[in-house]
Every structure is written in C-alpha cells, then in structure tokens.
Amino acid sequence: MRLKSENGSITLEAALVLPFFMLFIVFMASIIRISVAEIALNKSVSETAQIISTHAYPATILSDQVENLASDKLSGISTNIISLEDVEKLVGTSLKELLDFDPSSSNYIDQLGASVVTPIVQEKFADNMNSNSATGSNINVEVELPGSINGGADSYIGITATYDLDLTVPFVDRTITIKKQAYERLWVGGY
Predict the structure, then answer these.
(1) How far apart are the first and last CA of the chain?
(2) Are 179 and 162 in contact (CB under 8 A)?
(3) How many domains are there within the chain?
(4) Dist. CA 22–CA 27, nearest whole Å
(5) Is 103 domain-assigned?
(6) 3-state class (DSSP) for residue 92
C-alpha cells in the first residue's frame, strides 16, 4: 500500500492565493491614495473660497478708498503740469499696458482670477497632503467671479479645481482626474 505525500501543498496554495492577495493590497493602497487626494483637494478649494469670500468686501472698501484718494490728489493738478511719465510712476505700469487692458473681456478677468487663486489652492493642497512628494503642479483652477459685491443674488464666488493623479498600479497606466467645486457667498458686512 502506497501513502500519498503532502509535501509542497502549502507552496501550491500560496502560489495560487498570493498574487490575488498582493493585487488586493495594491488596489487598496491606490484607493486610499485617491481618497486622500480627493479630501485634500476638497479642503483646499473650500478653504480658498472661504478666504476670498471673507476678504473680498474689505479689499473692495480699501480699493475704493485708494481710488477716492488718488482721484482727490489728481483732481487738483492741472493737465499742463503733470506729464505722462509721472502718471506711469503713480500707476506703477505703462500706459500701453493700461490701454491694452480690456475690462469688458470676461475671459481676461477669469484668467486673471484663476492666476491669482491657483497658487493659493496649490499651496493649501500641498499642506493638506502632508507629503513632500505631492505638489499642486497638476492642479488646474477655474474661478467664477461674483456679478456683484453688494450682496445681490449673484454675489457668490465659485472655485473649480481639477487634479490629475497618476495611478501607480502594475499593468495599469491611467490618470484619474479629481474635480472639486466650492461656492461661497461673499461677506458684505453688517448693516
């Protein structure tokens, strides 16, 4: 009578189960990485929208005060005395740049808003990720500026940010785009 040998049965079972177990671990690590990036982007966009909404009204008041002060100073000067060079020094930019500026172009204003807000969102994202390897360079920001700062129905600022996350899963070469939006009503002061 011949007995069956069970040598190597554990090795065979491990060879069948281990690849699936490792794939599960890598999959879970990727899901966690995506979740952390999504939470960090959401928090970054929300915090930036809150900062802008609370500081827009005081900045507008300050801007109006500076404009009134400059208007008062320039109203007393006759046009014969002031030169174009003096105006350029006062304004801090050349008149050609001012003449090329088209304030009616909403595309230009949206691009300007996005260029100002993008570094803030990127910095907050890097802080929220708590990692030196995660930078906000893959973040694209779009800003919806409010139609009114005086507390109307359209006095909301909107920030939309997208982040491209490269997956580091074996046999998968994909990029996931995470998109988050935040809308905040502008603080318009108390009456």
Answers:
(1) 101
(2) yes
(3) 1
(4) 8
(5) no
(6) coil
- Tokens coding 189: 């002061």
E strand map for 70-185: 139-144, 156-166, 175-185
How far apart CA 48 and CA 110 sit, in angstroms, is 16
Report the number of secondary-structure helices (H) and strands (E) in the chain. 4, 3
Cross-strand pairs, 156: 185
Q: What is the pTM of this model?
A: 0.68
Owning domain of residue 150: 11-64+108-185
Per the CB < 8 A criterion, the answer to whether 147 and 129 are in contact is no
How confident is the model over 157-174, as pLDDT tens digits? Answer: 889 999 999 888 877 888
Nearest to 184 by CA among 162, 155, 147: 155
d(CA 45, CA 151): 22
Task: Tell whether 150 is covered by a domain.
Answer: yes
Count of CB atoms situated within 10 Å of the CB of 98: 11
Whether the per-residue pLDDT at 98 is higher than 50: the answer is no
